[in-house]
Amino acid sequence: MRSVLISGGCGFLGSHLIDRLLLRTDLERLVVVDNLWTGSMRNIAHIDDPRLGLEIQDAESFVSHHRFDEIIHLASPASPLWYMREPARTIRANIGGALNLLTLLKPDGRFCFASTSEVYGDPLVSPQPETYRGSVDCTGPRSSYDESKRCTEALLFEQRRVADLDVRVVRLFNTYGPRTRIDDGRAVSNFIAQALTTGIVTVYGDGAQSRSWGYVDDIIEGMERFFWRDPITHQGPLNIGNNCEISVLEIAEFVCSLVPGSRIEHHAPVPQDPTNRCPDLTLARQVLPGWEARTAYQEGVRMTLEWFREQMAIGSALENRAAGAAAL
Ligand code: UDP
């Protein structure tokens, strides 16, 4: 039976991964370490499972006498809006988190890490294979995230070299879907939240910059197979994402087409905004035969929009109830 720790388990991806972890019959104990910086208790509120234990703590300082068979390190903001506000904290979560959590791993344990396509920076080749070394500015506004992910990769692969650490590193491309914060700030969720509230969808620059938008269920399926389900010898890094590259403007227009009365407003371009991003999935297809990020953005955006609508309806029902109770 396996004892697993997941940092960042109350976040967008972490909570989806927990749903999959709890389906495992070999799971004895699941410890979730999360400081609720960008994560939320609401993301795991539906879970009632005695194997799960929640520790509201920073990954970089969490202490336990217990040692784990598997550690999945996801603790980090992933939205530029959030990590640019607190760069030191972002670096601590990634690198400090990995350094600390490594001490909690059993000698033959496995350490899984969510790295990012941001390690490719503003890429000069497309699509980007794992062998591409990237084009990152270590003094730029995105560097706290890009470089701390890169450094954590370095830490893990070097630990593999010197100590035979069993590592699994995925490089995730843009991911969207239910359980993104309404104030997350990343494109898909921001466009939906804006369309449903103010009706004004903000596109930075002309919107010609492109991304490969992956629906959360597809991405989680790839992570689950790579982290624990498939008998795999490859340790990564492994690109996981949708390889259908679509402009920001096209996504914004599609969201507006689903919400009558909403419209696009162009704002100043963001400094060092990558112009393009698309995974080369050759390796992923070899390592995870049959896996594909199949959900087209039209379908994924519709499902995400429905989820946001439901959340907003629940939110306003609760507010009305509170206002009603206060008036009594
Ligand atoms: N973007 C935008 N308006 C928004 C949020 C994002 O035009 O309200 C653009 C952003 O400038 C970038 C792309 O959408 O070109 C993806 O941004 P996101 O923050 O989702 O992720 P990134 O790939 O930049 O980390």
Structural summary, described in words:
By secondary structure, the chain is α/β, with parallel strands linked by helices. It has nine helices and 13 strands. Strands 3-2-1-4-5-6-11 form a seven-stranded parallel β-sheet, with helices on both faces. Helix 4 links the parallel strand 5 (105-116) and strand 6 (166-172). It starts with a strand and ends with a helix. Uridine-5'-diphosphate binds at residues 79-80, 174, 186-187, 190, 202-204, 209, 211, 248, 270, 273. Uridine-5'-diphosphate (UDP) binds next to helix 5 and strand 8.
Features:
two-stranded parallel sheet, 328 residues, single chain, binds uridine-5'-diphosphate, 38% helix, 9 helices, Rossmann fold, alpha/beta, seven-stranded parallel beta sheet
